[in-house]
């Protein structure tokens, strides 16, 4: 065993218990690593519902072998798309087993299932535990100081999965500038019946921005609106197609300006999920990227710990994989936004 592991309190410390952090914790704990999963919140929080591509089902089935149906609110065979043109239904595809189906998940339930799976896999889950600063020795991250702890937790690897907080990259001075104009989404939920939206979600875009609408559970719908030029008072209510529904509280907002950390991995650390790459929801890869990056960072951490791979090579491979996927998504979205005449893209 590596001497660093003998003197450490844990083999891996994962900050953040969303999909990325839980995926990493499940993989690391299942590989026999002493895994600590720290989350500053007291438990899974309510987050906007996510429409997942059918391709996410295989990965979720591996992470949650006992099933994830409890988190699924609706299934659909495609998406209605109106990108500067008349809306039309675009199916996901099919194979010998029938049509591929995406699904809407309740993020709070999904996160709870993943957290429980990480705990059962052997991870030491610590809720209400906030990472304050990393311990850096010899150019490598070797530990983390937490709120309320007298001494830092010593570990051989740290995985930052704290999402938009980007805790580790900020602490290491690695946070890069935004890769897009400032982008804000406003979103909310409504109750009632909208048969037009029951079969499939829809994304409809014009020169001002785009609107997403979807049924996320029986008699419950979600909407999102991104304006290329952020507005304060216009479009503050429900989309027109939801005019007959009852809003569930006021609309909320989130900054989804694109970010890509210049370094996604280094000596003793990885960035996973939104901590490494943040794109707006039109990319449709948010939760899938979080799960994949957590899985990949966890697998590479286990490979390095078990001496199946060199640490430097693992960090380089991870960075290349994460950056290539992010740049591809940014180029695709930039081209689509430029088609609409949005400034600052393409």
What are the main properties of this structure?
single chain, 346 residues, alpha+beta, globular
Task: Outline the secondary-structure elements.
Layout: H1 3-6, E1 10-15, H2 19-30, E2 35-39, E3 50-52, H3 56-63, E4 72-76, E5 78-83, E6 88-91, E7 94-95, E8 98-99, E9 102-105, H4 107-121, E10 124-127, E11 131-137, E12 140-146, E13 153-160, H5 167-171, E14 184-191, H6 195-198, E15 202-206, E16 209-217, E17 220-227, E18 246-247, E19 252-255, E20 259-260, E21 265-266, E22 269-271, E23 277-278, H7 286-305, H8 311-339
Parallel strand pairs: 1-2, 1-13, 2-10, 5-15, 13-22
Antiparallel strand pairs: 3-9, 4-9, 5-6, 7-8, 11-12, 12-13, 14-17, 14-18, 14-19, 15-16, 16-17, 20-23, 21-22
The helical percent reads: 25-40%
Dominant shape: globular
Biggest sheet architecture: 8 strands, mixed
Distance between termini? 50 Å
How many helices in DSSP terms?
Answer: 8
How many β-strand stretches? 23
Which residues form runs of ≥5 with pLDDT under 50?
none
Strand % is: 25-35%
Describe the protein's architecture and organization:
The protein is of the alpha+beta class. It contains eight helices and 23 strands. Strands 1, 2, 10, 11, 12, 13, 21 and 22 form an eight-stranded mixed sheet that branches. Strands 5, 6, 14, 15, 16, 17, 18 and 19 form an eight-stranded mixed sheet that branches. The protein has a three-stranded antiparallel sheet with strand order 3-9-4. Helix 2 runs parallel beside helix 7. The longest helix has 29 residues. The protein is globular and about 60 Å long. It starts with a helix and ends in a 7-residue tail after the last helix. The model has no long low-confidence stretch (mean pLDDT 92).
């Amino acid at each position: 065993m590596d001497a660093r592991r003998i003197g450490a309190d844990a083999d891996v410390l994962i900050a953040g218990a969303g999909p990325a952090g839980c995926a990493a914790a499940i993989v690391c704990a299942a590989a026999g690593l002493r895994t600590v999963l720290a989350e500053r919140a007291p438990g899974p929080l309510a987050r906007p519902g996510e429409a997942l591509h059918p391709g996410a089902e295989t990965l979720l089935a591996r992470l949650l072998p006992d099933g994830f149906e409890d988190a699924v609110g609706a299934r659909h065979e495609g998406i209605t798309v109106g990108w500067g043109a008349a809306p039309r239904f675009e199916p996901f595809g099919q194979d010998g087993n029938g049509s591929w189906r995406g699904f809407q998940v309740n993020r709070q339930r999904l996160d709870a299932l993943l957290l429980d799976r990480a705990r059962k896999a052997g991870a030491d889950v610590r809720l209400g535990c906030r990472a304050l600063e990393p311990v850096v020795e010899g150019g490598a991250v070797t530990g983390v100081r937490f709120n309320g702890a007298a001494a830092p937790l010593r570990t051989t690897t740290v995985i930052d999965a704290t999402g938009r907080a980007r805790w580790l990259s900020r602490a290491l001075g690695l946070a890069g500038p935004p890769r897009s104009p400032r982008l804000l989404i406003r979103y909310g939920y409504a109750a009632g019946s909208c048969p037009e939206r029951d079969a499939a979600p829809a994304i409809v875009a014009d020169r001002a921005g785009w609107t997403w609408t979807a049924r996320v559970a029986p008699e419950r719908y979600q909407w999102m609106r991104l304006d290329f030029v952020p507005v304060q008072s216009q479009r503050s209510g429900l989309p027109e197609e939801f005019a007959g529904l009852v809003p569930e509280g006021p609309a909320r907002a989130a900054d989804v300006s694109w970010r890509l950390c210049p370094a996604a991995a280094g000596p003793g650390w990885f960035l996973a999920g939104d901590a490494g790459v943040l794109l707006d929801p039109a990319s449709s890869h948010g939760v899938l990227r979080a799960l994949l990056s957590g899985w990949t960072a966890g697998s590479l951490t286990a490979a390095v710990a078990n001496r199946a791979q060199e640490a430097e090579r693992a960090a380089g491979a991870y960075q290349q994989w994460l950056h290539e996927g992010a740049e591809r998504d940014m180029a695709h979205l930039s081209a689509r936004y430029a088609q609409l005449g949005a400034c600052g893209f393409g």
